[in-house]
Amino acid sequence: MLPYATFIAWGLIMQATIKWIDGVMFVGETGSGHAVVMDGPPDHGGRNIGMRPMEMLLLGVGGCSSFDVVQILQKGRQDLVGCVTTVTAERVDAIPSVFSKMHLHFTVSGRGLKAATVERAVKLSAEKYCSAAIMLGAAGVEITHDFEVIEV
């Protein structure tokens, strides 16, 4: 068995602290020392000065998958200039209001990018590398992907 510190160093253990400020506002701080404000809309007691927690999940999935796609294309020596990912999700009309569907649309720009290469990167992220999307998919969220390539 490896010591606890080894698991932290390898990224196998993650930690975050969420501190209640007031109303429905919280500040979340990650183990890496970054912080974000989460808040709700006024009709739920918030002041609308931070992201909603479920929006943070969208950002997490989009960021995780975007990271993969960019890394795969860069390792493949593609002349990548930009990658913008739009994540759209549907939630069930019940409590808990979990995500039922999620769609990631990648707009990848570069010089001489081949659609097949971008498609492969998106597929690898979806099926093998994006921990966030794979975890939500295993929980029953229907996750789809598509992409477009823009020549610059």
From TrEMBL:
Pfam families per the UniProt record, alphabetical: OsmC (PF02566)
PANTHER family: PROTEIN YHFA
Domain of life: Bacteria
Protein name listed in UniProt: Protein YhfA
NCBIfam families named in the record: PRK10738.1 (NF008009)
InterPro entries the UniProt entry points to: KH_dom-like_a/b, OsmC/Ohr_fam, OsmC/Ohrsf
